[in-house]
Design brief:
homodimer, alpha/beta, Rossmann fold, Pantoate--beta-alanine Ligase, Chain: A,domain 2, 2 domains, three-stranded antiparallel beta sheet, 38% helix
Chain lengths: 301, 301
């Protein structure tokens, strides 16, 4: 494979995008924080299916990390990411320095109001403001026809869809299903911080999603009963600290009704201790989710 | 002149812009609230100098009006605006219904933090959030190479420049000097609400700018002395209620130093009663400004 072109400046990326568009090429953008894994590569494959040119951005966006969060510890294996992009047929790797995305005196912020409030928004104040702002900048920098996001960050995907529709971005937002290890653990750049014991405990997330889905298939429609089941599964991981385990509307993220009637998001965020870290309070926060589908099951009794 | 194409839908405007760009044409956008006057036509002339295709948007953006403001009373002479656009050689008039700019469930807002706070931002909470949000939407809808704004709304222009730079819009923001009546009154769509006596009083704004400029030319550099002079000129209008008269940095809008050293914005906002209105407390709020240039005067004694 030809190595991807590495671009650090917005103006250079915009000039490239203009030339590609003039030549009639469709452009797909895959925004990432880097530390690429098979989940990201699934996004790149989807991008290649939908466009002639694929841009992957590698940018650990500082404004989406809160004061006590893991910005400093976030992995940044640039050369490895580059090799993965080359093997995946990526055309451009956009790796801007922070000052390129936040010029001196930058003071413009984008808020997607209601969608930013629950779930991760409650636990991470300012996180989604940082996400919305940087995604808008990346869309304006790469000028894509389509942008591809993973469904693991389900709230982020819902928010980006809303942002693009509200601000009238001329771009299609595409979600790609979660990629999991063979034993069910959802891929995450943060999984590297789990030791063997914590990795075993982290399976509680996917197992609780499976349990809820199985109960639903067995006819359980009561939201409280499903959440109790999820709580019991998560409690099997003695070190898990649950930030949230909630049932919500997949589009508006409004709380689900007491009895599930339509597609319903089951979303989890759970922290585990990072043992052996300099900071004894360090933890890794994992998220996972599944959209439960009560109707389709009712159609096939 | 060929009448302009009237477009009401964002998707249609985007498709038009894509086709023009593919054909190699440069596009200029002139965002307005309609009720066009010679000040707007100066923007259109500047737009035509800089691009092959000119889009004028006519949209009375509800989100930039506060609860007690003049949204309902804002003039909307659509047919007259259209005739002026035709005579000025405008290619596209973009006149979206409100639901096209704010789709159902819209919840995305753009804030330009520091620049939104002083001057009109203090008097009109939420105004600049509405301006920033709608300008971003209009830029994304018309996909212009250049967007042209009047210097009369000086704070708006500073904010739009910042917005475009911060979010990395690939667009050039151009300011056009204030257009005035022969006697000095800055053109405004709101001047129609002034009766003869109030129109005469409204000359206090431009006269106070002239007085400050003359004092500066005479060697006055003391900010307090210049503002006292402005206050005396404004006091000659017995019905004027001054919202602000301030000296500020033209780019950051930070307060000017006690002794003027570089280019300094003198910005005014003054309200006059609208006599004969249904609401006896109705008033018209006029703004005006000038960038004072102490250095250039020092160079030519």
């Amino acid at each position: 494979m030809t190595p991807p072109r590495i671009v650090e400046r917005v103006a250079e990326l915009q000039a490239w995008a203009d030339a590609e568009r003039l030549a009639g090429a469709r452009i797909a953008l895959v925004p990432t924080l880097g530390a690429l894994h098979a989940g990201h590569l699934a996004l790149v494959r989807e991008a290649r299916r939908r466009a002639e040119r694929v841009v992957v951005s590698l940018f650990v966006n500082p404004t989406q990390f809160g004061p006590g969060e893991d910005l400093a510890r976030y992995p940044r294996p640039f050369q490895g990411d580059l090799a993965l992009c080359r093997d995946a047929g990526v055309d451009v790797v956009f790796a801007p320095p922070a000052g390129e995305m936040y010029p001196p005196g930058a003071q413009t912020w984008i808020e997607v109001a209601e969608l930013s409030r629950p779930l991760c928004g409650r636990d991470r104040p300012g996180h989604f403001r940082g996400v919305a702002t940087v995604v808008a900048k990346l869309l304006l920098a790469a000028k894509p026809h389509v942008a591809v996001f993973g469904e693991k960050d389900f709230q982020q995907l819902a928010l980006v869809r809303r942002l693009a529709a509200d601000l009238r971005f001329d771009v299609e937002i595409v979600g790609v299903p979660i990629v999991r290890e063979a034993d069910g653990l959802a891929l995450s750049s943060r999984n590297v911080h789990l030791d063997r014991a914590m990795r075993a405990e982290a399976l509680a997330l996917s197992r609780s999603l499976d349990a809820a889905e199985a109960a639903l298939a067995g006819g359980v429609r009561d939201a409280a009963a499903l959440l109790a089941l999820v709580g019991r599964e998560l409690a099997k991981a003695p070190h898990a600290r649950v930030d949230y385990a909630e049932l919500r509307d997949p589009e508006s993220l409004a709380p689900a009704p007491a009895r599930l009637a339509g597609p319903t998001l089951l979303a989890l965020a759970v922290r585990f201790p990072v043992r052996g870290a300099d900071d004894p309070s360090a933890c890794v926060r994992l998220i996972d989710n599944r959209v439960l589908q009560p109707e389709s099951l009712e159609e096939c009794p």
